[in-house]
Amino acid sequence: xxxxxxxxxxxxxxxxxxxxxxxxxxxxxxxxxxxxxxxxxxxxxxxxxxxxxxxxxxxxxxxxxxxxxxxxxxxxxxxxxxxxxxxxxxxxxxxxxxxxxxxxxxxxxxxxxxxxxxxxxxxxxxxxxxxxxxxxxxxxxxxxxxxxxxxxxxxxxxxxxxxxxxxxxxxxxxxxxxxxxxxxxxxxxxxxxxxxxxxxxxxxxxxxxxxxxxxxxxxxxxxxxxxxxxxxxxxxxxxxxxxxxxxxxxxxxxxxxxxxxxxxxxxxxxxxxxxxxxxxxxxxxxxxxxxxxxxxxxxxxxxxxxxxxxxxxxxxxxxxxxxxxxxxxxxxxxxxxxxxxxxxxxxxxxxxxxxxxxxxxxxxxxxxxxxxxxxxxxxxxxxxxxxxxxxxxxxxxxxxxxxxxxxxxxxxxxxxxxxxxxxxxxxxxxxxxxxxxxxxxxxxxxxxxxxxxxxxxxxxxxxxxxxxxxxxxxxxxxxxxxxxxxxxxxxxxxxxxxxxxxxxxxxxxxxxxxxxxxxxxxxxxxxxxxxxxxxxxxxxxxxxxxxxxxxxx
Amino acid sequence: xxxxxxxxxxxxxxxxxxxxxxxxxxxxxxxxxxxxxxxxxxxxxxxxxxxxxxxxxxxxxxxxxxxxxxxxxxxxxxxxxxxxxxxxxxxxxxxxxxxxxxxxxxxxxxxxxxxxxxxxxxxxxxxxxxxxxxxxxxxxxxxxxxxxxxxxxxxxxxxxxxxxxxxxxxxxxxxxxxxxxxxxxx
Lengths: 553, 186
Ligand code: SF4
Description:
Chain A: GO terms for molecular function: 4 iron, 4 sulfur cluster binding; heme binding; metal ion binding; oxidoreductase activity. Chain A: This is Sulfite reductase (NADPH) hemoprotein beta-component. Chain A: Pfam families: NIR_SIR (PF01077), NIR_SIR_ferr (PF03460). The structure holds 2 protein chains of 2 kinds. Helix content of chain A is 37%, strand content 18%. By secondary structure, chain A is an alpha+beta fold. Chain A has 4 domains: 6-60 and 74-110, Alpha-Beta Plaits (2-Layer Sandwich); 135-289, Sulfite Reductase Hemoprotein, domain 1, CATH 3.30.413.10; 302-399, Sulfite Reductase Hemoprotein, domain 2 (Alpha-Beta Complex), CATH 3.90.480; 414-549, Sulfite Reductase Hemoprotein, domain 1 (2-Layer Sandwich). In chain A, strands 16, 17, 18, 19, 20 and 21 form a 6-stranded mixed sheet that branches. Chain A starts with 5 loop residues before the first helix and ends in a 5-residue tail after the last helix. Classes of the chains: A alpha+beta, B alpha/beta. The interface between A and B is large, with 50 and 44 residues. Bound molecules: iron/sulfur cluster. Iron/sulfur cluster binds at residues 416-418, 422, 424-425, 457-459, 461-464 of chain A.
């Protein structure tokens, strides 16, 4: 994991001091509400419906156990003893006091963390694959590149006041686990003739106008990453719309110019700066890589550990379920990556208590070289667990409520904070998630359904990624009442697709029933091994529509 | 480059004092706002003395103003890009870049390009509604003069010029990104 040196410590420390001054000036009435707004946003501080909300940056989702323990302590000392993992691999506190925020930031700085650019019209936290470094289908570990991007984008003087927020994702594997095509810039690491480079996608996004990103460069040489990003963001900063915040994202500019013309302008700009000092040197690349060394894996005999694991699974059905759903193949024989589920029924997806944060830290120390990763679907990955320790880990995880064996199933929902917390919401989302979890609590049924992403957003800002859920639920306002629109067929994988609206919206009480009918159609119509999305892609929206909107006879 | 639609936006004020190269000094320049009535201005009707003209006015009068180069500056609005001035910026003693609102960040790119691409070395002045808390970013993008319109005393602003003593990325003040400055022992 990246470790700060003196320079990082100085910069982050000066940022805390700067924000302390700004907060004091605001509280003394020297800074207006309007002037304070972008300053607090660029330090992660929102004013929410009920209280301020502070969003902490977790660069590409990576946390060590000391950081987890510090987050636990902060949630206890400054908040109500819990925190929330977001769909951008960050972490939010929902109840801090405004005047405490500078102190919280300095506590974070002590463990090499910050809240820089987690909000505001600037380059946000870069996201990536939670299985970086361990996945079998990896082309190159994306984390060194993410870190180089993090440093380049942090306090970038030219790009702190963009037309709108700006999100970059990097994927280093064959399968896209970073949803790169719904980001402002999606970077796909590729290898051509033995050389590492990138495919660059631009102009994807969710929100009220969901768009799948366009490929604007098929192979960018490894050393040119930063200058190319700079060219893209510069074109956007100069030409992106600023007269209407709903038309200000880069996706609108790419559409307006057309991808070819947008690409031409980027290339033209890049031609002028590609030989600049931004070109990554071999030393810089090697240096960035040096922070993500191979952990000290034991030489394990996979045949032996796997046989033992099978025996354990055979004698314990609950363990075998967990093993099947919540663990992920590892490139090193004898190891697995484990997903801790934050989604037992009745807990808002992504919420963790202070003691749970400490428990994750303990589990990371005990089982996974002291590190954990936040996933974009709001769970936590322990990436490097020995197979012969899985049973122990499972038992420990169970004690702390992390072992719900539902990863990738219907009840492993992505869900935004919605109307319970968020002042922009049209409708609550957490109670909908809970009602669905309660109705579909039969594990055998869930497993029979297989991989199924259900994503819920409380408004069209789409923080709950409803456009790319196999089933998406969107809170809408109908004459002052909370209603829910249902969409089908989205995906954020390498075959990205946007969900289509089923039809008129439903009351909250109707939603579980509607989901039930949709699942019935799938079960009736699926062929052999078809997953929900496959069946949907084959039969289309109509059969689902007919069943859901059938008049009661 | 085609420009995003231009509204009849706010105009820069021209305060009596400003920050120049880290010191509070008197403003020696007049500033002509962008106005449709500018079409009536001629080189002859333009009073002597240092004056900052809107880009379009300067472009129209440029030839007629030969001999007065040392007292003619140009200001760019936020929808006017650095390439519209291009290398001819170097003939000017002063270029001002307007921030109609502090959230309109186009001027940051304009400044960097004037310095880095077009080799402009004269006074580069930020005018308009920028904030104290943007001074570090403005400075890093190449501005050395700040005609601040806000309520805070200029002397206090000087403190914010160097909120950061180090930086991650290349810009005008430091052309080497941090990875070329660190000792990369790892
Ligand atoms: S989707 Fe809407 S309701 Fe949900 S967190 Fe985002 S802004 Fe708030």
